[in-house]
TrEMBL record:
InterPro entries: DUF29. It comes from the Bacteria. This is DUF29 family protein. The lineage of its organism: Bacteria, Pseudomonadati, Pseudomonadota, Betaproteobacteria, Burkholderiales.
Length: 83
């Protein structure tokens, strides 16, 4: 969201989001706050990418530890790798 939306209280942001969803559902595209919808989608995509990268790093770290430090294997490592 633009700075003016970021500075709003959380309930206001929720109301804004719900309003945008409602407008999309009924096809009132000309009423959308399009610039900020795009910004919000871009932010969400970046957050999702960051989350995937973080999870992959964690998985790779645990797999490497499991493979190359067998003497230090902890029971929870296998469950972390599988989750």
């Amino acid at each position: 969201m633009d700075d003016h939306l970021n500075n709003r209280a959380e309930p206001d942001a929720l109301i804004w989001s719900e309003t945008q969803i409602g407008l999309l559902r009924v096809g009132q595209f000309d009423q959308l706050d399009l610039e900020n919808v795009i910004v919000e989608l871009e932010l969400q995509v970046q957050e999702d990418k960051d989350d995937v990268a973080r999870r992959l790093r964690s998985l790779m770290t645990n797999l490497l530890k499991y493979e190359f430090r067998p003497q230090q294997r902890l029971p929870h490592w296998a469950s972390r790798i599988l989750s």
